[in-house]
Write a structure and sequence with these properties.
This protein is mainly α. It is 63% helix and 0% strand. The protein has helices at 2-13, 37-69, 74-108. The relative contact order is 0.11.
Length: 126
């Protein structure tokens, strides 16, 4: 009975052979060989700059809201003032670090934020 069902099934469905399928990523996907240690370092530094800037900005906004909600209480207003001061100092430090990295790029050609290269003692960096 099984033999008859196999023959009927083969006749109806046909014979199926396995094929090799070569799946290629699209050209716009890029290649993995563009991921290097230098790019990871540059990306991490840029990500830290962005995250720190956002944190200090939201600290500044929260300090402003605390100041408005103090309602004349000197202690709460003092806390808000210290938070505003800390947030402004943080933003200034982040801006100065960015400015110094751009100055290094201009003076010495060291592009820390986009394409940092690890020094190579055996020849020019590739």
């Amino acid at each position: 009975m099984n033999n008859v069902l196999n023959r009927v099934g083969s006749a109806i469905l046909g014979v199926v052979y396995a094929q090799e399928i070569a799946i290629q990523p699209p050209d716009s996907a890029g290649t993995l060989n563009t991921i290097t240690v230098e790019n990871l370092i540059s990306g991490t530094i840029t990500l830290v700059f962005i995250a720190a800037s956002l944190v200090f900005f939201f600290m500044l906004v929260a300090g402003g809201i605390k100041w408005m909600m103090a309602g004349g209480d000197k202690e709460k207003a003092g806390e808000a003032r210290s938070q505003l001061t800390s947030a402004l100092i943080g933003l200034i430090v982040i801006f100065l670090a960015w400015a110094i990295s751009k100055l290094l790029e201009t003076l010495f050609g060291v592009n820390i934020l986009g394409g940092f290269r690890i020094p190579n003692f055996f020849g020019p960096a590739s």
